[in-house]
Amino acid sequence: MKFLHLSDLHIGKRVNEYSMLEDQKYILTKIINIIDEQLPDAVIIAGDVYDKSVPSAEAVELFDDFLVRLAQRKLSVFVISGNHDSPERIAFGARLMHNSGIYMSPVYNGSITPVHMADEYGTLNVWMLPFVKPAAVRKVCQDDSIESYNDAVKAAIERMPINKDERNILITHQFVTGAERTESEEIFVGGTDNVDVTVFDCFDYTALGHIHRAQSCKSDNVRYCGTPLKYSFSEAKDQKSVTLVELKQKGAVSVHVLPLTPLRDMVEIKGKYDEIMLRDFYKNTSWQEDYTHITLTDEDDIPDAIAKLRTVYHNLMKLDYDNLRTRSSNLIDAAENDQKSPVEYFSEFYELQNNQPMSKVQSEFIENLIADIWEAGK
């Protein structure tokens, strides 16, 4: 039996104020093309369907269209809510959609009923555990010992009547300890959301969502498929993909990574302004339409640089400088310099920011300005 594992669609997401809806519509069609080629028995969407708990009308319409196209192919589709989703909104209409083979995770209430599937190797059970927080599981289980995310997921799994003689798939949305994160995920301070990979030992395959970079956790049996699109420049060098999982007899699981090509890539470019504006620099690339992060190495700032760069790089998202000024340290040791005057502090700060001292005219201006401020405060 073959499953196509997706997650973290984040439909409706904006990246650096750019709407990704057109790119998402394009990549969802590419996924439909893969489905038509690979003919999986089911599709898994492991959470973060939307980017917001209250998605826009356009985002809902796009996901609705995707579900309709999946249903037309007579597939089983399993969708759980992630930390960006509203569990209640994802669960809406779930009982009606079952008749079309679309299974939406209900709001977690302490009891999970698996979906049973069958092939020549016997029964396969699909368990859907949406993103849960310790407080919610603690309340449902009436167990005050549940404090961490690891405790919560472990408790939820222990309440499942799992037949270990049959094949079992878990779909969930959590952060497994050791997984490699990117800048586009919601980060919890201090790693309090960590879940140990061993809590999934009783499953033949665990389809994870939440982490945006495709990766396996200790083995291919516990895997993040990653996002279908790049949502931060920390992912610029990643190859986005979907994961095709094939389960035969008990214990026989194989994983295949199928690459995705986006409408627009996300790239990082570095160099001097005059260099990167030359046609020979970009003519054999797709950079003019890609989402770009440009780092200029010119020592002097380029006036109106963003507008000028966008005449060539139409989807410039981010502009930085890398030069003597930006590489200089911006720290002043107050413990060593606590006898200095406010003018001296400002002079040091100015020089650290600009890699050159203030002129005589600037120094006089600052002295007079500080004197006026102090006089007004008396």
Summarize the helices and strands and which ones pair or pack.
Elements: E1 2-6, E2 14-15, E3 18-19, H1 21-38, E4 42-46, H2 57-72, E5 76-80, H3 87-91, H4 94-97, E6 102-104, E7 115-119, E8 122-129, H5 134-141, H6 149-158, E9 167-173, E10 175-176, E11 194-195, E12 205-209, E13 215-217, E14 219-224, E15 241-247, E16 253-259, E17 266-271, H7 273-276, H8 279-282, E18 291-296, H9 305-310, E19 315-321, H10 324-327, H11 342-354, H12 360-376
Parallel strand pairs: 1-4, 4-5, 5-6, 8-9, 9-12, 10-11, 12-14, 17-18, 18-19
Antiparallel strand pairs: 1-15, 2-3, 7-8, 13-14, 15-16
Helix pairs in contact: 1-2, 5-6, 11-12
Write a structural description.
It is built from 12 helices and 19 strands. With 378 residues, it is of the alpha/beta class. It has 3 domains: 2-259, Purple Acid Phosphatase, chain A, domain 2 (4-Layer Sandwich), CATH 3.60.21.10; 266-326, no CATH class; 328-376, no CATH class.
For the biggest β-sheet, the strand order reads: 6-5-4-1-15-16
Helix/strand structural class: alpha/beta
Radius of gyration: 26 Å
Mean pLDDT: 92
Helicity level, as a percent range?
A: 25-40%
Please state the overall shape, judged from the principal axes of the Cα atoms.
elongated
CATH topology of the largest domain: Purple Acid Phosphatase, chain A, domain 2
Task: Compute the number of structural domains.
Answer: 3
Superfamily (CATH H level) name of the largest domain: Metallo-dependent phosphatases
Oligomer: single chain
CATH class descriptor of the largest domain? Alpha Beta
- Strand percentage: 15-25%
CATH architecture of the largest domain: 4-Layer Sandwich
* Secondary structure tally: strands: 19
Question: Which stretches of 5+ consecutive residues score pLDDT under 50?
Answer: none
- Biggest β-sheet, characterized? 6 strands, mixed
Number of alpha- plus pi-helical segments: 12
Roughly how many Å apart are the termini?
80 Å
